[in-house]
Specification:
The protein is an all-alpha fold and 208 residues long. Helix 8 packs antiparallel against helix 9. The longest helix is centred in the middle third of the chain and has 28 residues. The chain is elongated, with a radius of gyration of 20 Å.
Length: 208
């Protein structure tokens, strides 16, 4: 086995462990989850888990951050679609809004929020990091897209950071209410209704 192959194998095993850890933590909660169950879920020996991540708290931190990065990557790819919104800006924004809601309402994002907030008292720095990587990262990317749209004359001149913050608030506020803070699955029809209502309000404020 070459050095590169061995390194790739170690990375793959670490990813498998982190995915398994997130699954188990989501299923059992932090306090009830055990490293042996995570090892079983990942299909590795318990010592292998400790070789990659030294203890349960470290495992939790890395599993949460890996999930946060995955959710963020999905959202950034969606926002990037606004680079070329086509002729119908309202339709492009509605599609973007709906797709962002889909990610936010999906099981992984809901579990991420629930697990992070449940451990906030014990790991407040982790909550801050997750918010920085998810909400802040997406808001900055969206602000960049909105700034370019304003420069192109497709939105009125505005502070793009504020505009992005307001558009996201128009999405996440109704979603949290309808999902009962993540306890209820939100039907697709409701996601689309929230997205369209948010964009109508946004266009009324920022449309040319």
């Amino acid at each position: 086995m070459t050095g590169a192959t061995a390194a790739r194998g170690r990375i793959d095993k670490r990813e498998a462990i982190l995915n398994a850890a997130f699954t188990v933590f989501a299923r059992r909660g932090y306090d009830k989850a055990c490293v042996q169950e995570i090892a079983d879920e990942a299909g590795v020996a318990k010592p292998t888990v400790y070789n990659h991540l030294t203890d349960k708290e470290t495992l939790f931190r890395h599993a949460i951050l890996a999930a946060a990065d995955a959710v963020t990557a999905e959202n950034l790819a969606i926002v990037e679609r606004l680079r070329d919104p086509g002729d119908d800006l309202s339709a492009a924004l509605s599609d973007t809004a709906y797709r962002l809601l889909e990610v936010c309402a999906a099981e992984r994002a809901r579990d991420l929020r629930r697990l992070t907030y449940a451990q906030h008292a014990n790991l407040p720095d982790l909550t801050a990091t997750v918010l920085e990587r998810t909400a802040q990262g997406v808001a900055e990317a969206l602000a960049d897209r909105l700034a370019r749209l304003a420069l192109a004359g497709r939105l009125r001149p505005c502070d793009p950071t504020v505009a992005a913050e307001q558009l996201l608030a128009l999405l996440t506020g109704p979603l949290e209410r309808r999902s009962q803070l993540g306890a209820r699955d939100v039907p697709d029809t409701e996601l689309r209704a929230v997205a369209e209502a948010a964009v109508r309000t946004f266009i009324a404020a920022y449309g040319t």
